[in-house]
Structure formats: structure tokens, C-alpha cells
Design goal:
By secondary structure, this protein is mainly beta. Helices cover 9% and strands 24% of the residues. The protein has a 5-stranded mixed beta sheet with strand order 3-2-1-12-6. A 5-stranded mixed beta sheet has the order 8-7-9-10-11. A two-stranded parallel ribbon has the order 4-5.
């Protein structure tokens, strides 16, 4: 069964998230990620098959295209899935996403998907409210959304807490942006709901950085892709393969 881990209820009036999670609204009267009345029960998934035989970590890493030695050094040796987000420029809100899977013959790419990142581009030292996405390599362990679990192997938290009211930077409606989200393990506690407020680096370093459904414009700090691609990603990521996201503008990733 998919485990729904409990987390502290967040009052909408006191939400201080500074990443894309800033639009999330806590569920009144209970845990922010609790299933809505009449919602779907936890999903059942089959036991994942054994991972493909591993090749040498060094040989596998070097086959991830576009990544320089500094970036490659951050990729864990046991990672067999890598979501590579390549920004078009340091100050650009547009990027491309490719999911790579490591096999006995090296890293194999999937499709390339268009994406949005933060309004002002990328930062090596993300701060809350800077409107830049953090550059780096981060784990992917927890997911959730307003909609029921589409069949992911990640821990999934469904509930009314994943609401996205208002409009984006280009006047586009944000409704539905958090139908599906995957928490990026930047300044958060892995193993908790994406809505959890724990910030190990401190609140000033931002948080609530997610992969989520694209709303047609730049984000506050997250990476957004089309809903069908979010569903595909959720169904493909496998915690036994230690998935990570590698994200940044092309020049930074090449360092």
C-alpha cells in the first residue's frame, strides 16, 4: 500500500512557503494532506521488479549528457533515475526536462518535455523570494496532489492542501497546478508530505520547491511540466532506483 505519512497541519493564514508551494492552501480542521471526504483510498501498487544490473558508477555518470565534473560529482552513485532539467539561460524561465534511466549499458534518455522554471531563472544560492530556481542535484522521494494517486511508487499525499488559487506572472490561472506534485528535496525533510514546513537550512533559504503541473507561465522557484507528463513521471519514478533531479541552466550544469 502507498503510505500516507502524517504531517503538521498548516493554517492558510500562516503559510510562509517561498517556493511554488506558496500557493498551497491548508485543509481546514485537519492535516493539510488528509484525503478529502469521499476521496479515494490509498492506492495499491505491485512490487517493483529488480533494478537493472549496475555498471560502474563512474562510467554511468559520464554518459549523462551536458553535465560537467562539478555537477556529476553530486550525482549519487546509486541513482538509477535522473530527471535532468536544463534551463535555456541563467535568467530564463524556460527549460527542457528529460528523464534518464541507468541500465547495464549506461544512461538511457526518455522524451524531451518543455518546462517552466522560476521567473528570473536560476541561482547557486537560492533565497526565499528571489524568484530563481535552485541549481543542484536533489533527491525525489515524496509526491502528492489534489487528485488521487495516478499509480506512483513514491509516497503520495492526496488532499485539499494542494490548492493553487490566483493567477501567475503572465495573468494565467494557477488552478490545477498542484493536481500532481513531486517534492524536490531542496531545504526540506525527505520522507514527509510536500506540504511539510520543515526547513533544515532555515526559512530564509526558501522551500516548497516542486515539480508540478504547468500553468503556462514562469514559477516562483519550481519546475513545471504538462499534466500528462507529470502523470507519466509519477508512474515511472521508483524509490528503489533512488531517483534524483539534476537542475540548472545549461552553462551551470556543464561546470
Amino acid at each position: 500500500m502507498i503510505t500516507r505519512r502524517p504531517h503538521v497541519a498548516l493554517l492558510a493564514a500562516s503559510l510562509l512557503l517561498t517556493g511554488c508551494g506558496s500557493g498551497a492552501v491548508a485543509s481546514p480542521g485537519g492535516p493539510a494532506g488528509a484525503t478529502a471526504e469521499g476521496g479515494a483510498p490509498a492506492s495499491t501498487t505491485t512490487t517493483p521488479s529488480s533494478p537493472s544490473p549496475a555498471m560502474s558508477a563512474e562510467a554511468a555518470r559520464l554518459e549523462l549528457p551536458g553535465l560537467g565534473p562539478k555537477t556529476l560529482a553530486q550525482v549519487p552513485s546509486d541513482a538509477r533515475q535522473a530527471v535532468v532539467v536544463t534551463g535555456r539561460g541563467k535568467n530564463s524561465p524556460r527549460s527542457e526536462v528529460v528523464l534518464y534511466e541507468r541500465t547495464a549499458t549506461g544512461w538511457q534518455p526518455g522524451e524531451s518535455w518543455p518546462a517552466h522554471n522560476a521567473l528570473k531563472g536560476w541561482s547557486d544560492h537560492h533565497m526565499g523570494g528571489d524568484l530563481r530556481s535552485p541549481i543542484g542535484v536533489f533527491g525525489l522521494t515524496d509526491a502528492g496532489g489534489l487528485l488521487r494517486d495516478p499509480g506512483t511508487k513514491l509516497t503520495y499525499d492526496q488532499g485539499y492542501g494542494f490548492q493553487s488559487p490566483g493567477t501567475g506572472f503572465e495573468g494565467e490561472p494557477l488552478q490545477g497546478s498542484f493536481d500532481y506534485v513531486i517534492a524536490i528535496n531542496y531545504n526540506r525533510q525527505p520522507g514527509t508530505s510536500p506540504l511539510d514546513w520543515t526547513r533544515p537550512l532555515g526559512a530564509n533559504r526558501g522551500g516548497g520547491i516542486w515539480l508540478h503541473v504547468d500553468h503556462g507561465g514562469p514559477t516562483h522557484g519550481c519546475v513545471s511540466i504538462a499534466e500528462k507528463h507529470m502523470e507519466q513521471l509519477l508512474r515511472t519514478l521508483d524509490p528503489r532506483l533512488h531517483p534524483v533531479v539534476v537542475m540548472g541552466d545549461a552553462a551551470s550544469l556543464a561546470r
